[in-house]
């Protein structure tokens, strides 16, 4: 189930930031980023917030394992095909 961006605005800012951090650290492990220092992390969080607002990234809730994950809209569209 996709969570609309407007619903994300209702979350405490720290909760949304934690979801984004989890996503970014996953990107580091996948090799998408070489590393993240504090300045790069802060900048990446802002970029992710913008991508969520623009619909390039989506927050998805999995009922199977009761978890949330940020994924690219392209990745979600490919799974639905």
From TrEMBL:
Question: Pfam families in the record, alphabetically?
Answer: UPF0270 (PF06794)
Source organism's superkingdom? Answer: Bacteria
Belongs to which family?
Belongs to the UPF0270 family.
Name of the molecule in the record: YheU family protein
């Amino acid at each position: 189930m996709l969570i609309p961006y407007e619903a994300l605005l209702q979350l405490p800012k720290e909760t949304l930031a934690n979801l984004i951090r989890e996503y970014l650290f996953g990107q580091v492990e996948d090799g998408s980023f070489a590393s993240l220092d504090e300045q790069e992390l802060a900048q990446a969080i802002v970029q992710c917030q913008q991508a969520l607002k623009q619909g390039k990234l989506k927050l998805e809730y999995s009922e199977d394992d009761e978890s949330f994950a940020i994924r690219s809209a392209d990745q979600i569209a490919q799974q639905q095909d």
